[in-house]
């Protein structure tokens, strides 16, 4: 069985359990009368190796939004994108030079609503290990791989609290070899840990 097939089976098994997922700031934004969310997608690229990893980026410090944060490759769904999968593949090409023909799509999972007004659809996929990736200098400061088992392990998910827009917000933090994964990226990994019976 290929890694993609194992992941599809794990997603099917997770869906059967109807897990309770983190929904992000959807409820708070609805109460505040926020405008409809902007549709976006990220590529959760899992490396096909004995111990699979997930490819993550650290954004440059010069970006207007989320500077220096760890993220999946991804962004808004543009009008020319056929769907979330097409957007995630395009963004991965632009951000880290990941060739689309090297990607095997596994499927999509439940969207996550961010406090900045995006409804993000994670696109799960597999990629060959050790691909030569070229980060976009304007957007990506670094590309790294964290073990899938580590980032999905609830023992590594730390609950944190902070004040944002005069309101107490709760978020998850995952630390890996000097990198801090938090906010929407960590929340999507928490959700994936519930959706994926790995």
From TrEMBL:
PROSITE patterns: NUDIX. Gene3D superfamilies: Nucleoside Triphosphate Pyrophosphohydrolase. Keywords: Hydrolase, Magnesium, Manganese, Metal-binding. Residues 37-167 form the Nudix hydrolase domain. SUPFAM superfamilies: Nudix. It comes from the Bacteria. InterPro entries: CoAse (IPR045121), NUDIX_hydrolase-like_dom_sf (IPR015797), NUDIX_hydrolase_dom (IPR000086). Its cofactor is Mg(2+); Mn(2+). This is CoA pyrophosphatase. It comes from Sphingomonas floccifaciens.
